[in-house]
Amino acid sequence: MCGICGEVRTDGQISLAALGRINDAMQARGPDASGLYVQGGMAFGHRRLSILDLSAAAQQPMIDAELGLGIVFNGCIYNFRELRAELAGKGYRFFSDGDTEVILKAYHAWGRDCVRRFKGMFAFALWERDSGRVVLARDRLGIKPLYYTQAPGAFRFASSLTALLAGGEVDTALDPVGLHHFFSFHAAVPAPRTILRGVKKLEPATLLTIEPDGRETRERYWSFRVGESRPTDRRLSEQEWVHALTEAITQAVDRRRVADVPVGVLLSGGLDSSLLVALLSQLGHQDIRTFSIGFDAVGGHAGDEFRYSDIVANAFATSHQQIRIRADRALDALPGAIAAMSEPMVSHDAVAFYLLSSEVSKRVKVVQSGQGADEVFGGYSWYPAFLSVNDPVDEYQKAYFDWGHADLARLLSPDMIDEDVSLQFVERFFGDCDGASAIDKVLQIDTEIMMVDDPVKRVDNMTMAFGLEARVPFLDHEVVELAARMPAGLKVRDGGKYVLKEVARRCVPHQVIDRPKGYFPVPGLRHLRGPFLDFVRDVFDAEPARTRGLYRRDFVDHMLQQPEAEMSPKGHSRLWQAALLEAWLQTHNI
User: DSSP letters of 136-202?
Assistant: First the structure.
């Protein structure tokens, strides 16, 4: 896990100073080492977090002079040892013991198709010394980020949007389409857009090839289709599905144990992270280290789930740590959490993950986390309704959108809003899901789009703010493919995640499986009162907010006077969402 960056120019006028600033801005992502490499019209930077092969032989940028290839790489290829053995059988010689060099050899052996063999999370840029060609790749489910900005004859990329800003020469005007998506989709802005006109992000499961003359080609190398089954699937019984899923998830958890440092678990007390702990125990993982976080209660809403995380920790005798956070500490951490966001993120648990990562990173460098299970296995409360609707577009808007178009027109200044582009996005996406049922369309968009740019991105950003690598077994692509083939009823039955609960019944205490669904609670941000409301008011009253004119001030004043009057269908504070965006812009001097 690291930070990568680079610049490719057709005029050869590399700005090494700008690249250095970009690389330095990602120090938190890779605190262990850094490096820069320049060749003609190409330059690359890397910040290292040492997880595999802790020696200097695995430093990056990594150059293989014999093959004429170089690479900067962020992530982990979990099956790198199997690939290394296969490549060694072909005659390749290795000078390091990690996964980075395996990517170089795999590219030389199999070309761009090598990514289809990788089981892991990754974003990398690989270049050919002799041709000057550069290939960028992002993993199948967008677990690792890759942002870029372009100008005539120049292409810059980095693991963080805000790192690109440090290099300068970025158009930071707000993109009205990205802005509309931000408010509609709970801060998820689907790739390739961001909220800034001048910054894009590479789509998941995509290869981008840049030729020496600047020509670009893109290739999507993987896709999945929810509800598209194999002929043999129709004969599978419920217990056979449960057995297949048990094997797949166990293998996914096992893969993510590969490391030359200890691996822990972020244990929320919910089904997903509890299952990870149980499977690690079954795999014989020694000294399982687990971590839970909790906050002060506000307005009768509990701020922790220690009751459930303790059950799991005791059942599997983990080395467990409760991290108790006072409300004022959560408030103090907000500026740091906002600064750590590559893109603005409104979910309340961003600051929770930030504080949790701050403590966990003092003890381990790698953790497994349960993100993705709700989207992949139908865990949200609004999913069952889609089993009985014919046209899911309107129902999805009512259930998922934080802001409808009419409400946004009350909030945003007239020059920042035009058509209902978010509703159009959903209409196009569902229209492309040929023949799929309503529930399958919803699970498709949530797994392919919304999950990537909300919970997955959030966990990456908050953990990497402290040099902590988070691995997400439920987003193993083979698990996702298997879940996509399952009948929808097996997923959304009985309140959601039915089949995953059946897997858990074999190893997880029943109190955790059959409990009401919880969330990662930060009550102070759900109910903006006292110092949290003062924080929001100061954001809106700051000079940059007043001169920016992004919002209609009368509607902002209405929300400030009645903080809980404007809530999303899912119960999230619209006031917080508007304030968070403005705070993010101010934090990064946009």
Answer: EEE-TT--S--EEEEETTEEEEES-HHHHHHT------B-HHHHHHHHHTTT---TT--SBTT-EEP
- Measured in whole angstroms, the distance separating CA 400 from the mean position of its chain's CA atoms is 19
- Do residues 396 and 404 make contact, with C-beta atoms less than 8 angstroms apart? no
Q: Is the pLDDT of residue 300 over 80?
A: no
- Pick the more confident residue, 420 or 322: 420
Element (H, E) at 98: none
Nearest to 83 by CA among 113, 58, 49, 59: 113
Burial class of residue 126 in the structure, from the number of CB atoms within 10 Å of its CB (0-12 exposed, 13-18 middle, 19+ buried): buried
Helices (H), 433-552: 438-445, 457-464, 477-485, 488-492, 498-504, 510-513, 523-526, 530-541, 543-548
| Residue 457 tokens, joined | 């991105």
For residues 129 and 564, the model is more confident at 129
Give CA–CA dist 431/422, Å, rounded.
Answer: 14
User: The whole model's pTM is what?
Assistant: 0.95
Closest of 378, 494, 498, 380 to residue 440, by C-alpha: 378
In percent, the amount of the chain with pLDDT more than 90 equals 77
Strand, helix or coil for residue 46: strand
Report angle CA 110, 116, 117 to the nearest 5 degrees: 75
Please write the tens of the pLDDT for every residue from 1-24.
689 999 999 887 888 899 999 999
The C-alpha atoms of residue 559 and residue 228 are separated, in whole angstroms, by 45
pLDDT digits (tens, 9 = 90+) for 513-562: 987 766 555 656 767 778 889 999 999 999 999 999 999 999 999 999 99
Give the separation between CA 189 and CA 454, rounded to whole angstroms.
9
Please state, in angstroms and rounded to a whole number, the distance separating the CA atoms of residues 278 and 250.
10
Contacts of 90 (CB under 8 A, 6+ apart): 109
